[in-house]
Here is the input.
Amino acid sequence: MSNEELKIKLSELFPSAVFEEGGEWLTFLVEPTNWKTIAQQLRSSNDFDYLFCVTGVDWKTHLTMVYHLTSTTHRHTLVIKSKLDRNNPEIETVSDIWRTAEFHEREAYDLFGVKFLNHPDLRRLFMTDDWKGWPLRKDYEDPINMIKL
Amino acid sequence: MLSLESITNSIHAWLNNTFNPTLALLLEFVIVGTCAIGLFTVLGLVLVLMERKVSAYMQIRLGPNRVGYGGSMQTLADTLKLAVKEGLTPDGADKFLFNLAPFIVIIISMLILAPIPFAKGFQIWDMNIGVLYVSAVSSVSVIGILMAGWASNNKYSLLGAMRSGAQIVSYELSAGLSILSIIVLTGSLKISDIIASQENGWWIFKGHIPAVIAFVIFIIAVTAETNRAPFDLAEAESELTAGFHTEYSGMKFALFFLAEYVNIFIACSLGAILFLGGWMPLHIGNWSGFNHIMDFIPSSIWFISKVFFLIFVIMWFRWTFPRLRVDQLLNLEWKYLLPISMFNLLLMTLVAIMGWHF
Amino acid sequence: MYRETQILKAVPSNIANDFDDNNEMIINVGPQHPSTHGVLHLVITLSGETIKNVEPHLGYIHRSIEKMCESLSYRQFIYVTSRMDYLSSHINNHGCALCVEKGLQIEVPARAKVIRVLMDELTRLASHQLWWGAMAMDVGALTPFFHAFRERETINDIMEETCGARLTMNYMVPGGVMVDLHPNFQTKTKEFIALFKSKIDEYDELVTGNIIFQNRMKDVGVLSKEDAISYGCTGPTARASSVSCDIRKLYPYEVYNQLQFDEVIETGGDCYSRYLVRMREMRQSLSIVEQLIDNIPEGEFQAKTKAVLKLPKGEFYSRIETARGEFGVYIISEGATTPYRIKFRSPGFSNLSALNHMAKGYKIGDLVAIMGSLDLVIPDIDR
Here is the structure.
């Protein structure tokens, strides 16, 4: 399915959907509060069964969670973006829909401090449990480990 | 011809002539003890070197080749290194049992040296229950291993020891049954009798197929009993790091290591005694010329070469096969080897009663 | 929940106190353990020998490569990625170069494309050879490791001549490859093909057919197709569960669409299937190298690029098939000389997340076999 077809199909499914132009794949902007229901619908109605990349981006004013979804049957790819409040980033977990999200969300929590609501086991993944700060945020300072170029 | 038997006899005669019988006996104890310990060390050194060379050959490497000629002194250097290393005792360990365990293991493997005939008439103690003694004493070594595993206060050690316990206890059965099937033929547990009964041919040839089956089962069972790959679950390197001797270092580790190799030697010599005629030369029926030539090779060489052939086979296993899983190991014993060896014993009894063997 | 602080506390206690109410024992596998292939730390809960739970603790070799890349230019950051999946460093570099080329819309010369594919496939072969040796070692056969290294050595020699390095090659640059092929490359590679064709049968003889090996691998660590997709498994791990996920076939890059090769798929989903997939993949890679070695086009090995690369504002994602699975590079550019944010989607990370699901209910020995069949490279997981 091409991006255009997918866009039409998704617009039917979610009438209030907002899409972002540019980029290789169709980008779908969602509100963090709606994300869980949209994710369930994407999984069930459009065969988006394979979540291959979950990551966060720190835009200094806000955080964005980026989910890359693809379908192993139809081979169409969709990018989901969700804008989060930088001071209190919260989003529903999708680890019960795509099991791989469990680890990826722990990574995002570890590096960006995004709180995934209802995540079964949300704690630091790479850093030690008592680590202070969120390393991949732009304002993170670590005088010992970071080398400024 | 100068043989080991005549040497020991002349020493015995000289001691009895020079001293009173009690003192002579005590002196003989000392000599035998020293020889046993010396043999123990030499065996350890030679077998470790042999293992390293065999493994190197199988793994397209050279093996040790720096210390001594062709690396012959490598194990000596390693032993020296281990001897000067600190023998650590972990903080949470049960110190008494922890330090006792390696000695139990090594004393047991020394004890089994007693009835092994290294040449014609060259035997520490030819007791009338020789084979029974060997299998009885060798099963005690599991206590040493369990002790080491428990006292180390390490979970890996504990798992290794428990595996080892289950393994040795179960494989003892089929080893015992395959030993029994030869006892059925010889009618005696005395090792010199067993060897004497093979004068006109080794049991593996004379005993037909049941003897071959018993031999194969025996080799598998002793490989398992000595904790060698593919049955090295007690020290499964990739699973339990080093199993029951994870926490041991220095000379205490060396004792475990030495005991393992001496156990292999003893198991293989038992195999050689029971199935391959011990120190008996290879005799074929009534080819008197051939038999006569074979008699010229000293009995000690016959014995040692048979044992080392079996040791080589066991080393060959180790460097070829992957390791079994713990449940597969027990399945193999209880579901396959034990029923087969029981049936084999029945068959062998039938063979013995009907006199079908040669 | 088992935390690091608790691990520290648990050390001096008595072993008998470490059994909880259900007679379950918690045991730390790693970070120093012979079969975790690096500094992976697994906290496993055992009931006897049976595994109840496996919990990976990561981060022992976390260098925050993503953060480092944010301050490196588009030429520099590629070299850092060699240190992630060190066994397929060529392919990592390739994935990054592809992403930068996508952003700059650089057309890579035909010669460079072929060289890249050749190097990728040789890397895949070398990686699978190492895996084969380590896999056999995990289940207790020590000898195959040396046999595998013997052949891997020839590949390393080939790499050394052309790239100047044996492990972290740093050969791919945006726009092509760094230097042209060494004059010996073709003859040496042909020699290697001839050698390896006989050796791969030897591999099968030594390990594949072994009854103990098959018993250890069959029906162990079964991963169903649905679970493989849900856990985001890729590469041989997913293909063994009959998921078609070979990026070389699905989203062909470079010259893969002109080549004759099969996507290897097995249906068992167990360790043995994963083993077979990799063994068959080696043959496929060998045939790809064979097809290309005589057909390297003449011409430039590198496209003309500007000295300072500046990606336009936007987002770029490239996917590439490494020896372990799908490697994704996600670059967010703000138009500067350095990436604003870079994300590496590493195949091992997702494959590892399925470990708990796969290992539950099996024995400790199986855990080792499962980890071996996943072909984990820890720096790739920790990044």
